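S1.2 Input.
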Amino acid sequence: MKLSALSLVLTALATLSLVSCNSGTKSSEGTAGVQSEAVEEAADFEISLAQWSLHQTFFDGPITDWQEFGRLLMEDPDALLKGPDPMEFPAMAADFGIYTIELVNTFYYSKAGDMAYWEEFKQKCEEAGVNVGLIMCDALGNLGDADPAAREAAVKNHHAWVDIASFLGAHSIRVNAAGEGTPEEVAANAVDGLTKLGQYGATKGINIIVENHGGISSNAQWLAGVMEQVGMENVGTLPDFGNFCIVGSPLDCVEEYDRYQGTAELMPYAKGVSAKSNEFDTNGNEANMDYLRLMKIVKESGFRGYVGIEYEGSDLTESEGILATKALLEKVFKEI
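S1.3 Output.
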């Protein structure tokens, strides 16, 4: 997802993985955090699908005006949904042969307090044989806000999504470590916000995981330092192969952190992995990054679990991009 300048809504609207939609059973496995016993028995890695891979499908076209998108998200979020009903996402994922999904709260922004909706969604998961792995949360306030009251409000805004994740049997919610100030100031504030949210998440058996998602959070050394300061078992990272632009936008990046170094620095805290993809060469490899090298880093870290597809390209349709990424991951899994 492309990053915008609006501090709250457009900071990071997007991107990742397990445990059944119809079961709250969870287990731990090393640095990978909460993992599925079935996955451990079947393979080192399995594939999940990030809902943002289908954002143009659900919104019935690309987002061309992020400011207007942000306004509608705040004022009339359901008006953004001009395509298929997001309730059908479990069945759509199953059609790709993918049975673990990563929800994005953007598609359900008006449903945070509607448990009847989530009961129906859970039934849809059961019918499709699909598990919910995590929920990606955006536009809920900055967990690293310099204003203590605003930071506390952001923490509380995430509580509903922790509750929904727990109800659906997910293992995590993905959040953003955003704020204003010097890197040191944002880090201190993010540590406070993440610690408080982590404490609430622990009461529900839910991990709080931070993605490298633009700005200072895409500086992996900085984010790893925040994780060290938080020092909680259920607070970790969601390394994204593609989100290492520190200054600028993904399409016009002024300063970018080395993705291989960054992935290695974030993996010790990882409780999921986001396999970003944009374009492919004639051999089916991602044109801008070495998936084999990246997955070797993932494996060498000791992580075992789900790797989530997040296709954001334009050369292929969203369905084609998802299948191309799936084929690439399946090939790489055999090679590492």
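S1.4 Remarks. The radius of gyration is 18 Å.
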